[in-house]
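Figure 3 (text version): structure tokens given as input.
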């Protein structure tokens, strides 16, 4: 069970971990984490597109839109993203306010 709501998760910014490499495959991609040596299969090209769109979007909602994932399929993709987050394949984006906080 998730400890945070879908709505909150949709509003968060995430990105591919810097320790992860994606290798394109006919079924989607292999994601390899060089830190924990975990290998994960991304079994849908749409999921690969979503993961790649994360860093260019300020939220998961924005990445879902950029990857053109139909809204009715979002729950399945949120579940997949939660699994990738649990495996440290994706990480929360650093907030720009943390970087500029001293300038206030």
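Below: residues designed for each position.
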């Amino acid at each position: 069970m998730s400890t945070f709501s879908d709505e909150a998760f949709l509003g968060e910014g995430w990105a591919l971990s810097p320790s992860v490499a994606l290798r394109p495959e006919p079924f989607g991609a292999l994601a390899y984490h060089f830190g924990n040596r975990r290998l994960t299969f991304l079994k849908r090209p749409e999921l690969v597109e979503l993961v790649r769109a994360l860093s260019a979007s300020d939220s998961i909602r924005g990445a879902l839109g950029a990857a053109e994932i139909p809204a009715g399929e979002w729950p399945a993709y949120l579940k997949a993203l939660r699994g990738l987050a649990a495996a440290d394949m994706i990480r929360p984006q650093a907030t720009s306010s943390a970087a500029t906080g001293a300038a206030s």
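The chain has one domain: 10-93.
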